[in-house]
Each structure stands twice: as structure tokens, then as C-alpha cells.
Amino acid sequence: MKRKKVEQISFSEKGLRDDVLESAVAIGIPEGTAGAIAEKVAAKTAVWVATRAVITSDDLYRRVAQEAEKYSADLAYVYQNRGKII
Amino acid sequence: MVGRKFDYEYLVIGSGAAGSAAALLAAGLGVKTAIVEADRWGGTTLNYRDVPYAAALGFAQRYTEAVDGTRFGMSSSNLRYNYPTVLNWQATAVRRAGGGNRKVFENAGVDCYHGFAQFISPHEIAVGEQQISSEKFLLATGTDLAVSGISGVELVNCWSPDTALRMAKLPKALMVVGGGSTGCEIAEYFAALGVRVLIAEAQDRLLPREDPEVSEVIEQHLRKRFQVEILTDSRVVALVQEAKAKQVVFVRDGQEKSVRVEAIVLATTPEPSTDYGLENAGVKFSYRGVEVTGGLKTTSGHIWAAGDVIGGESSTEKATYEARLATMNALKKVGNTVNYTGFVRMTNTMPQVAKVGLNELECVQLGQKQKTVLVPIDLVSAANTNDFREGFIKLTSDMKGQILGATVVAPNADLIVQEISLAIRSGIKVSELAATPHIATSWSEAVRIAARELA
């Protein structure tokens, strides 16, 4: 049976933290606050990721959005629409 | 016959009451079936709830009856129990029921995968590093504990309804958070073993979904017999870990209060377990559960769901019924829709509470015209011979005598309610129930008396 080749990437909490920080600053959240949010979101997401061996990138962005929503609705929106916002 | 595209024809996620029933039925139909379980084989029902609870509560109630047996001639001054043996007894019951045993499935020809399932595409899941595809799926993932809204819950070690009965050491004082069926059962169990128990419920009475008379009987029973401290109108907002105790902070009458206990059991309303990539499979869900049609099909045309994951009342019978219906719909395209008439909601305190059909509150909410009668059980001979007088039977019918529902609060309520369940399903009228002979010395005699008053 042929299986579609899927690119596998390993998760990096640091990489996610940098990504969230960049997104937060891009939408106008002050740097200090953005840093704190990125730290918390990345940490909580990392805990969630550790509970499953394989997830899709959509799963990851949905989880980040869920965590980000606690701190910033705008940041959550960015991750809810990742890949869709031009 | 399996198409060349998929590993399986039918893949069941979860091996609890719903998952087991579905997988075994599918395998029996000759379908290439797999089942995935993240925790113990047999799921929550076998390992953590129905079976161990029945064993534990059965022991506690027999022990309590023995302690109270002096009036019958029993000498109980030296009566005691051995707690490790109590725990062993529960474990034995679970093992005998098949908990933790995947051979049940393997022997039936079901392939078993142990691990957390995550949907990665509509027809594919990942279990660990393995990717498995299936033509059709059944979601039977049950529920998870829901503790949002309680600050500090992640930092304080608490017990859940699944783990509470397995405490290695009994605490001196225990707080049960949540006054529903499970909370009341847990409170009674530990109180019967001699633990000082407090129970906190955000609403104004325990068992808030039942009729008010039920709450009155159970609250009085827990207070009077077991000295359980009942904190109604008390919403738990925070937990704090201290050096040698745990502080439970709750809000009552707008004021913040707290108590210190050794152990906490969170018996809050669980939420359907839906965090495993259902979006990747096109399955719509909410905090109430997975959305399904009357035939239990989800918004994804090749995925069905059954059991607690779809929300609604929680019971093993309901989960098993749904699983079989969904599986027949999925594999044989039968097109059946669910009919929940006659399913019972149980609370296994002593007295037990069994509710079937519509209660008085629900009739009022639905605008259903009804006649209701409440018969205290101390009217029957069994109350006298057992010297137990707490409870009643409340029977409701429509204006034409069709039985709409009943609430039974009595010893053996689980047995008493069955004839009423049958009556509702079969359209039997109160007059027929009243005319049916009942054993004069049984608790069920109260059903005949209630039916006669209503007829």
C-alpha cells in the first residue's frame, strides 16, 4: 500500500517561542508583554505536544491559538488563521 | 472485504463500554476491525467507575448496615475493616470483569493498538509513531475531568472520581468538590469508612438535576447518618497547597471562605474528550461533545460516535446501546435512530436514587400537563421489616394515564425502577401497573400504591 510521503518536523519550544514573539510584536503588542506571552504560550503548548507523538501543523496552531487567547484575542486570531491571512 | 486503500474497515477509538461493544460487534460481523486504547483496556467503566464503584459502595453499605445492626440482634462493638483488603477486593472485581485485559479483543479477532490516537487526516490516525488508516471510525473516547475555573488546581495534588477509590491511605478530612451523583457516592463511601467528609456544591442543593425532594432525603441521610458537612451554594474557586494540608477556597453568599483538608476529590461535571485532532477529520464538536445525527453519524460522513463523548446522560447501558446502533448503521447501513426512552439515571447512595423518563421539573419545563404522586416508602411493609424509612416513589403520568416518568429513592431502587422503565417503553398505563400484583413485603409494593393513587 502506497503511503503519501509526509514531511516530519520536530517540535522546538524555543522555535515556537520566537515565532509567537515575532507575531505578537508584529500586531503591536509591546515587546516586554510580547515576550512574557510568548514564554507562557510556548511552555503550555510544549506540555501539550509532549502528550502526543504525532501532530499536524494545524493541530499545533490551533493549540497555540487556544493558549494565546488567554492573553490576546488578536494574537489568537493570527494563529487561528495561520496560512490564510495574506 | 477491505479495499486496497485502508488498513482496516472499522477502527474504534476507546475501549470502554461503547468502544468494546462496537469492536466486538464489528468483529463478529466479520469486519476487519481495530481498537485503540490510550489507558487501560476496558476503559473507564471496567477499570475506574462502574465495577470498582459497585464493589466499593457495596462494601461500604454492607459495613454500615453491620455497624447499625445492633437493633437486629447483631453484636457489632468490635466490628472493623481492613483497608488494604478493601482495596484488594475492588482490584479483584476489576480483574474478574476483564479490566486491563486486551485478550478479550484479540480473541475476538480485533487488532489492538495501545497508545494515544491523533487524527492526522480524515482517514488516518497516528498512534505513537505508527500511522493507521481505516475506511470508517467510531469515536468512543469518553470524558475527561473538567477543572477550569478553579485556580491552583494544577499545583495541588487532587483525586478524581477515577482515582479516588484507590487512595492508599485514608485521609482524616476529605473535601469532595461537586454535589452530583458521583460526588454524593464518593462522600458516602469515605464517610462510611470513618473519614470526616465535606462536600461543596455550587448550586443550592445536592443532586441539583433531581427533584427537590430527592436532594432533601439524600442531604438528610448524609448529614444524620454520616455527619457529612454539606456546603451548598458554595462555588470552589481556588486550591492552595500548604505544608501539611490543602486549603479549599470557596465563595458563598458573596463571601470568600476556606477550609483545610488532607485530601480533595474533584467530582465536577466532566467534559467530553475531544482533543485528538478531530478538526483534521472534519468532525465538528463543542464543549457539549461531538455533534452527531440521530443515527450517531458525525459531520464527517465516515465517522460515527457513541458514549460519553457525544454528551448527554452518562451510563454504561446508554453507551453500549449507542455503540451497537452506530456500528450497525456504519457497517450495515441500517438507518436506525436513537430512542432513549426507558434509560435510567442512577445514584448509588443508600438509599439509591433511580430516575427514569420525565421528572416533575422537566414536565413543567416542557409544558407537559401531568399528574404526580409521591408515596413515602415507610408506607410499605419492607420499610418496617428492614427498619429503613428514608425514601419515596414519585410517579408522573399524563392526563390520560400514560406513565411519563418516575423517581425512586429507596433501597434497591435500581431493581424497583425497572418495571417503570418497561412500562414507559411499552406504553403501559398507570391503571395496568396498579392492577399488577406486587409482592406485599417487597419495596416494589410502593410502585403499586403510587400507581393506584394516580390511576
Describe this protein's structure:
The complex is a heterodimer of chains A (86) and B (455). In chain A, helix 1 (13-26) packs antiparallel against helix 2 (31-49), helix 2 crosses helix 3 and helix 3 (57-68) runs antiparallel to helix 4. With 86 residues, chain A is mainly alpha-helical. Chain A is built from four helices and no strands. Chain A has one domain. By secondary structure, chain B is of the alpha/beta class. Chain B has three domains: 8-143 and 271-332, 3-Layer(bba) Sandwich (FAD/NAD(P)-binding domain); 164-266, FAD/NAD(P)-binding domain, CATH 3.50.50; 351-454, Enolase-like, domain 1, CATH 3.30.390.30. Chain B has helices at residues 17-28, 43-47, 50-67, 83-97, 103-107, 181-192, 212-226, 316-332, 360-366, 381-386, 413-426, 430-435, 445-454; strands at 8-13, 33-37, 111-114, 117-121, 124-127, 130-139, 143-144, 173-177, 196-200, 229-231, 235-241, 246-252, 255-261, 263-266, 271-272, 285-286, 289-290, 303-305, 344-347, 352-357, 371-376, 392-397, 403-410. In chain B, the strands form six sheets. In chain B, strands 1, 2, 3, 4, 5, 6 and 18 form a seven-stranded mixed sheet that branches. In chain B, strands 19-20-23-22-21 form a five-stranded antiparallel sheet. Chain B is globular. The relative contact order of chain B is 0.11. The chains are: A mainly alpha (86), B alpha/beta (455). The interface between A and B is medium-sized, with 12 and 16 residues.
